[in-house]
Amino acid sequence: MKKIHYSEIPGKNIGFWAILGMLGFFIAVGLGSVWHMEHEGHHVTGMSNQIIWGIPHIFAILLIVAASGALNIASIGTVFHKTAYKPLGRISAWMSICLLIGGLAILVLDLGRPDRLLVAMTTYNFKSIFAWNMILYNGFFVIVGVYLWFMMERKMNQYYPYAGLAAFVWRLILTTGTGSIFGFLVAREAYDTAVLAPLFIVLSFSLGLAIFVLFLMGVYKGTERELGDGLLNRLAKLLTIFLAAVFYFVLIYHATNLYITNQHGFENFILADGGIYTTLFWLGYVVLGTVMPMALLNCPKPAGKRWSIAAASALTVVGAFSLLYVIIIGGQAYPLEIFPGKEVIESGFMDMAQGGYYQYSPSQWEIMLGLMGVSIFILATLFGSKVLPFLPKSLADDVVDPHAK
Amino acid sequence: MQKMLLGLAAGLLLIAGWAGAQAADASGIKAIKQVSETEKCVAPKEEMRRTHMQKILHQRDETMYKGVRTTRHSLQSCVNCHVAKDDKGQAVDINNPKHFCSSCHKYTAVSIDCFQCHNSKPTDPVVTQPIVGNPDFIHPVPLKSSAEVSQ
Amino acid sequence: MSNTEQPQTCQCDGDSCDNQRRNFISKTAAIAAGTVVAPGIFLHQVAQAKNAAEAATDAVRWGILVDTTKCADGCTDCIKACDERNGLTKENRPEIAAHWIRKVTLRDKATQKENSLPLMCQHCEHPPCVDVCPTGASFKRPDGIVLVDKHICIGCRYCMMACPYKARSFVHEAITDQKAHAPRGKGTVESCTMCVDQVDQGGQPSCVTGCQHGAMLFGDLKDPESAIAKKLKEINSVQLRADLSLNPGIRYHGL
Questions:
Q1: In chain C, is it the N or the C terminus that has fewer CB atoms within a 10 Å radius of its CB?
Q2: pLDDT recorded at residue B23
Q3: Which residues of B fall within a CB distance of 8 Å from C175?
């Protein structure tokens, strides 16, 4: 492999600034809707006492999970010594920081009392996985920041494998922590399983990689830098493996549930008559998010083509979004079983939902809040690449040997 | 950059000094009170000005976590005693600049969120008889009428 | 007034004697307060009631026994008493309205037997809401009452996700004219407080005093002499979702 030269992306043309402007606009709109939500109270959202966490949380968890996954690229280079991935280390680390910022921004701004952020940062209940996550997220910024610095600073270069290892371990714990947010909710049928944490980890691999690939393709096209087919195909192959792994864990999740009689009601709800949730599961996650990208990546005809890799990556994101929606919102839409063996025939507090499950229709405010987080992520990643040399000047196959070990 | 920091520091000092002066000398900041002439505040005026926040915040934790229900430093008792009335003779709420707590905080640019939850008006006919067994204790629970109490 | 628990004589040494005297005084206080709180209703018992200046201790554990066989179908007196006392208003928006207590009617899937009962925060000994709360705003007092310290609640709603009883609600909009003893405000989570300020002064929760059918019995689960403890010893009762081993302070008879 040749020596890799990094440089800032020029970002001088109108297109670049137009994109930044658009992202800025989305962020402004998002902040406006946050102001509205906080001023009016959460009644302007679709969230309620039944659907407690809504669309903002899907976006937030999507970004946080992706953050861990995006760092995977750097880890493969540093920890597993795959030289082909090494040139991607810097941008992978930077992107993961930006993803996490975007996700956390959503979470914080959705709080009922975002003005009390200081309280959240200073008073901890160490029994709470949420509190641990706050520590994990803050630590992530520090560790990945150091890792990035070591990668870029020649004097520190010799230490970066250690920082890389630390970041790798930290990131796995972080995703376990994020998955455990739900795993600790023993009372809810959807979450009462140990599979959720590993499912989140593999989901982070596929999702993070897909977002990474999309970003890379976009930027290299936009800046007219070279991105080799060999490297892309290698990433695509990895994506296939990750997609399969996610599918395997989803399979286990539902298979174990089907084994437990208690859970049949919930499984029936998700897999057969849960309306939007059933649709999202089968159409969104299984067909669009798993079968299609698998086909695009592996059928001889489209395989290896740029459009098909891009489409497969985009579909992976769609699939992950659907899956998270089904798990997080579907899990709440299914009413709690407070009285096993009994049927609630009347209640003053919606214990029996209309048509068997609770309805949720997100309002524009919470959707804009979610899009704000995504925009923050893209804007920060682009802006960072403009001011610091994160991206290699060329990723052509003769520069980066895609078949290197 | 240095200039900016200097400016910032000077500004902060100014504000702090001004606020301190305001708190120290009461000209312009009057407790708008409605209490019988004989009733005094729960501590001397000067002390109250300086330390009322510690007192109520301490009381808050005592009540919240330990269930201590003395009324001496309870937020409700402040509000019940310091009542300002509008032209129509109605007690004003916190949004009115005449309200005791906002009258002063406006000057000192203190913003408190307490009255998002706590009622800033003395809505309840507070019973003033001490409850049995504890002379220091005034019943904060609203009662239907004092007639029922004496039953 | 039936108060059989007053110590008539005091034949004991120093410490516990003091204790008993204190009990006596505070019981008297409790009864007075209780009468005040709910005129015309006799207290069944209030053991170990503390006076207002005392801190709550773990010498007691407050609980409620709900006798579903007495709970009348269609009656919502306890709900009304709670709403009234805590200033909860419900403006036709059931999805976001605050429910500290609710009436539920059940039908057994196998036997078709119907039950009607009030459901509220179960004041668990091992409350999941407390475990998950990131700031420690959800907490359990020494006497077993589970509360939200709204002063440090950030409104993340994780506790609502964790509660097996759907006992908590989130304040979705600004509130004005709150009851002075029940501060509530936008952006924080709330639930049944067992009318803690009344209990602290030797009173009882409003739902209990509001029930005309004698279906709710409030008292100290730890005191073997208390009416609730005696009753629990005598009749069958269950905890909701006992499979989760949370040991709630609310027990149900006749389910």
A1: N
A2: 42
A3: 116-117
